[in-house]
Write a structure and sequence with these properties.
Elements (H helix, E strand, L loop, with lengths): L1 H31 L6 H8 L15 H7 L13 H14 L8 E3 L9 E5 L8 E12 L3 E8 L2 E12 L1 E7 L5 E7 H14 L9
Antiparallel strand pairs: 1-2, 2-3, 3-6, 4-5, 6-7
The structure holds zinc ion.
């Protein structure tokens, strides 16, 4: 009888310690995956693999238009944020996809209201796409340039904008969290102005 009671107590102790371990593990995981994205954004980002394009929001859809006109929030750049890494890869898959081919894309265009853009650096060798976190234009030249523009989110409209600065000074974070600033000019400067406008709910048609 004494032996049975002893065994029962031992079983309870083991069960309790195993459960505590389980709770502890879950808490550690939550801290590890702390992210700048909300649950809806995480679901959207993670619903397919990194090579699958995201749906591009269009001004022809009322719900999409509201998101496209919303001012975005800053994020905390963190290379350990799996959602940021996946979002950048899927934004690249989207802008490089034949169905929505472009020279730049902003996160709100895929339904994520965060300050993230991808720009094709047509001024660099190999014209690579680069990701910019919380980008801001901090200086503009008075000199303007005319540029034919279109937008992945605005079907069948193209127009020549005349209000784009010839060169701009941009300030941003790399996805690894390094703060940088850089002067860009010509067509590259137009792409940066077009994409940073998106983060403030401004579209190129506003400049026509
Ligand atoms: Zn656009």
């Amino acid at each position: 009888m004494k032996k049975r009671v002893y065994l029962l107590i031992l079983t309870i102790v083991i069960t309790v310690s195993t459960q505590s371990c389980g709770i502890f593990n879950r808490e550690v995981k939550t801290v590890q995956y702390s992210s700048s994205f909300n649950n809806n954004e995480i679901t959207l980002i993670m619903e397919a693999d990194t090579t699958t394009p995201l749906r591009v929001l269009k001004t022809t859809n009322l719900k999409d238009s509201i998101i496209l006109r919303t001012k975005c929030d800053n994020i905390t750049p963190n290379t350990k944020d799996p959602f940021l890494n996946t979002l950048i890869k899927r934004m690249y898959a989207t802008v490089a996809d034949s169905a929505s081919l472009g020279v730049g894309i902003a996160a709100p265009q895929v339904g994520v209201s965060k300050n993230i853009i991808l720009v094709q650096r047509v001024d660099k060798e190999g014209e690579p796409f680069e990701a910019y976190i919380n980008p801001r234009i901090i200086q503009w030249t008075d000199k303007k340039q005319e540029c034919p523009e279109g937008c992945l989110s605005i079907p069948n409209i193209r127009g020549v904008t005349k209000t784009r600065a010839y060169a701009v000074l941009i300030e941003y974070y790399t996805p690894a969290g390094e703060k940088k600033s850089e002067m860009v000019e010509g067509y590259t400067a137009v792409i940066f102005q077009h994409e940073t406008d998106h983060l403030n709910g401004i579209l190129f048609i506003d400049h026509l």
